[in-house]
Amino acid sequence: MYNLTIDEVSFCIIDLETTSLSPETGEIIEIAAIKYEGSIITEKFNTLIKPSTHYIPENITKLTGITTAMIIDQPKIEEIFDQFIDFVNDTVLVAHNAKFDLAFLNHVSNQLYGKNIKLPVVCTCNLARRLFPETKSKSLSNLAYHFNIPFKQRHRAMSDALVTLEIFKKMLELFQDFNVTKMADIIKLSQNKPIKHQYKRRRYV
Q1: Mean pLDDT over residues 75-89, rounded?
Q2: pTM, rounded to two decimals
Q3: d(Cα 74, Cα 204) in Å, to the nearest integer?
Q4: Domain 6-200 belongs to what architecture?
Q5: Which residues are catalytic?
Q6: Between the CA of residue 73 and those of 67, 69, 78, 81, 141, what are the distances in Å?
Q7: Domain extents for the chain?
Q8: Which strands form 40-48's sheet, in the order they lie side by side?
Q9: What would the mean pLDDT of 20-38 be, rounded to a whole number?
Q10: Cβ distance 41 to 34 under 8 Å?
Q11: Which of 23, 61, 105, 189 is the most exposed place for a label (fewest CB within 10 A)?
């Protein structure tokens, strides 16, 4: 997958809502995933999740709008995680602040399967630091404002994932303008690693 080009890869943009900032003290309460292939959205996955406490803390309700009443009849994470893993299989995961999302997902994966999720990951927040140094904040909402991308519902997984996708599209356009087309190079940039100089030339110069 690392040797494939942008046009050959299946991307999966993911976003989570959780009950805290750490998987040690919190749980996933919503997952969204958008499969993006050949410049089009091909599939979506979105579900609310009932935490083991069967309760959404008041501060999380204020932040996300997700209430305890909304999750009472929803599946538990172990009931839908296989479906989620099948959905993201053979894709490159894309997330804003991917370290956060992967920490929660790997925590569940280790509980259920005894191992981390083994997929390539691109962090749009890390890429923004490399590509858009002029923007003071690299938050999702600030980048959406910078690119005039509508942001209908902050802190809901599908809405955040859709905005992340639009920001990622801007990045892909910039990569192609500079002839950076290999996934291996994009992943390196996302990890703050250098890439070979010849990939930095514009195609139309």
Answers
A1: 98
A2: 0.93
A3: 51
A4: 2-Layer Sandwich (3.30)
A5: 155
A6: 12, 8, 15, 17, 31
A7: 6-200
A8: 40-48, 28-37, 10-18, 92-95, 121-123
A9: 97
A10: yes
A11: 61
